[in-house]
Write a structure and sequence with these properties.
Blueprint lengths: L1 H25 L11 H35 L9
Helix pairs in contact: 1-2
Length: 81
């Protein structure tokens, strides 16, 4: 559970760390008002998509890191309860 909480915190931090500055650079104050301008709407879609892609990369890295950790817990004679 603790590992999942850390992974969720890291991925949220990566997402917000990318998306917020990018949206600020667009000068968008209210996302709802950006729907009037199709160019900004497309830019927002690309920013959110890239933020999502970065989240998935971080989650894939966490998943890859779990494999060696699980292998380190392996014992030859398994403990039976």
């Amino acid at each position: 559970m603790m590992g999942s909480a850390v992974a969720a915190a890291v991925t949220t931090s990566v997402y917000n760390g990318y998306v917020r500055p990018q949206i600020g650079a667009l000068g968008v104050q209210d996302i709802d008002s950006s729907s009037d301008n199709p160019g900004i709407s497309d830019d927002l879609r690309l920013i959110y998509a890239e933020g999502y892609n970065r989240q998935m990369i971080v989650l894939a890295a966490f998943a890859a890191a779990q494999v060696p950790a699980a292998l380190l817990l392996w014992k030859r004679p398994q403990i039976r309860v």
